[in-house]
Specification:
The chain is mainly alpha-helical. The protein has one domain. It has nine helices and two strands, in the order H-H-H-H-H-H-H-H-H-E-E.
Amino acid sequence: MPPLRWQACLFITINAVALSMLLFDAPVGASERPEAVKQLGELLTGFGDSAWLICISILLFFQGRAGYKLLKTARSKAQALYVSWIGAYLFTTVVFSGLLANLLKRAIGRARPDHFHDYGMFSFTPFSGHAAFESFPSGHSTTVGAFFAAFALLFPRYRIPFIACAIWLAMTRVMVGAHYPSDVIAGLALGGWFSLLTAIVYARCGLLFKLAPDGWPLAKRLFPDMEKPGAL
């Protein structure tokens, strides 16, 4: 792991989850969201579903592979291969971070906000086998965090819009009453960390990323014009 940065990020993450759990989870569980907020959440929350994100990553991978086979120039082939590895990276982060989140939420067994009045916000039933006790961490938020963190690492120039999108889509899980704020924060952090670790592994394999002197993964650029929007 990169020195210094990960300790600070982990410290911030733990404190953000703890403070959110102590200050915000109870009010969210005890109250009803306004109807307009629910409708907005229902409208946007589907974008955090892993199925279509996985489809995008698979499409990028096979499109890149097909381009590598069909295109003639070395430059075009290199760009197509680059796109295919982006698809592979996104697939790795989304799928495996989602599997990890699902394992954790079943092992932790936290009751969802719908059951706040019955069990409270600190009710844990590990491996209950019931979706009502699979709140922490949020699987949707983990997927969203992994997907947009991956793009932020690949295209750091646009990291602020990517972060904003991740926060908005993750918080829709609170809007629809499916998760507590701390579930969402934990999921975003888990997805982001997973993308970072996966990028480091790819960098050590010489794919997509290179390691900076401090160990942080930096996206490789095949050609200068690939920095421009739409070059891919």
